[in-house]
């Protein structure tokens, strides 16, 4: 079928690297003889835990959005305007069947794994999880069809997301310190989503390992892993400032205020992880420990940003210092010296920031 070559084959060819990584994660990290047991345990794990199942469904919905975005981009390209003269002529059930088939062919990996998960969940007695998976995938298959049909009827229209972004940018005044956050939401949503998915999995697994026995040190380890996973976002923050906010130091803003603005930005970026921790430990946790975990994550990310003002620090040196800082905080945490570690990190971050902020010069390759 010609449409399959245009949509399906092109989709899998374009995302070859993505599927190779996915294949390695699901089939390459364990020996061949242990694959059935590995996947059976994995499926029982997320079908038997409501929070884990919600996270899996969220990941599947992100993949579905990836499929929808691919089809929309293909329909919007100049090389495929002829599709409006072919698919646009379809009427009745033939139109819906065609779009359903095209969407299923690229949504198939989730559909196949979801089908297997449904069978395993039903055999394990998790009937509600099986129903949720079936209903969820039915929605994921059918909901985009109306969008495709509307796109064929109105090829020049702007998507709802784009209209919402334009309205939001016109209506609300954004402070300068929040520009990087808006950059992540608008142009780097994939990096942000991947980091949040990873950190959510880490927190859920950390709380599962505790098995009802509350241990703030275990939570601290989970937070440190989350911070490590998001350190790349801090590294990209420097590149964004170098490219678009290089004149920022010339504005009449006190250095202490700039430092607090960085802390506030990272507090907002790490808010989903902190909220998830509080929700997962609501009955056993302590407010003092929650505050400690929040301050630890924000302090470390602020320290990472301050490190990037040092002269001659490249990506390798940056991640080396990131690992060193996390190890130091880890050992202090294991010794129950939580607040001392926070003070140490904050004092170091503030000293670096205050000393290097106005002396920092962006590398030439960053501003060309």
TrEMBL record:
Transmembrane feature ranges: 12-32, 52-75, 96-120, 126-149, 193-212, 218-235, 263-282, 288-311, 318-340
Coiled-coil annotated residue ranges, if any: none
Keyword vocabulary terms for this entry: Membrane, Transmembrane, Transmembrane helix
Keyword Transmembrane helix: yes
Source organism superkingdom: Bacteria
Segment forming the signal sequence: none
Entry keyword annotation includes Membrane: yes
Protein name from the UniProt record: Uncharacterized protein
Source species taxonomy: Bacteria, Pseudomonadati, Bacteroidota, Chitinophagia, Chitinophagales
């Amino acid at each position: 079928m010609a449409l399959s070559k245009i949509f399906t084959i092109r989709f899998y060819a374009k995302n070859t690297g993505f599927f190779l990584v996915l294949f390695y994660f699901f089939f390459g990290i364990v020996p061949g003889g242990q694959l059935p047991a590995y996947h059976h345990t994995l499926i029982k794990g997320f079908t038997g835990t409501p929070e884990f199942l919600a996270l899996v469904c969220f990941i599947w919905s992100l993949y579905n959005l990836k499929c929808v975005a691919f089809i929309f981009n293909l329909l919007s390209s100049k090389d495929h305007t002829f599709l409006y003269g072919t698919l646009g002529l379809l009427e009745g059930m033939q139109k819906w069947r065609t779009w359903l088939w095209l969407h299923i062919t690229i949504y198939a990996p989730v559909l196949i794994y979801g089908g297997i998960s449904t069978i395993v969940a039903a055999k394990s007695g998790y009937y509600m999880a099986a129903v949720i998976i079936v209903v969820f995938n039915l929605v994921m298959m059918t909901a985009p069809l109306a969008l495709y049909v509307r796109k064929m009827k109105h090829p020049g229209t702007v998507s709802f997301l784009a209209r919402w972004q334009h309205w939001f940018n016109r209506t609300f005044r954004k402070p300068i310190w929040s520009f990087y956050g808006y950059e992540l939401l608008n142009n780097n949503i994939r990096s942000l989503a991947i980091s949040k998915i990873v950190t959510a999995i880490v927190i859920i697994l950390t709380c599962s390992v505790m098995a009802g026995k509350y241990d703030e040190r275990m939570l601290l380890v989970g937070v440190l892993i989350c911070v490590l996973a998001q350190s790349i976002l801090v590294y990209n923050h420097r590149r964004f400032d170098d490219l678009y906010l290089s004149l920022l130091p010339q504005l009449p803003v006190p250095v202490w205020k700039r430092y607090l603005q960085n802390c506030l930005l990272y507090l907002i970026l790490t808010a989903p992880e902190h909220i998830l921790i509080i929700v997962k430990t609501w009955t056993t946790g302590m407010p003092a420990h929650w505050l400690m975990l929040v301050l630890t994550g924000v302090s470390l990310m602020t320290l990472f940003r301050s490190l990037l003002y040092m002269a001659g620090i490249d990506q390798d040196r940056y991640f080396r210092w990131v690992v060193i800082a996390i190890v130091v905080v880890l050992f202090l945490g294991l010794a129950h010296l939580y607040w001392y570690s926070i003070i140490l990190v904050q004092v170091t971050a503030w000293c670096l920031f205050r000393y290097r902020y106005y002396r920092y010069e962006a590398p030439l390759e960053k501003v060309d």
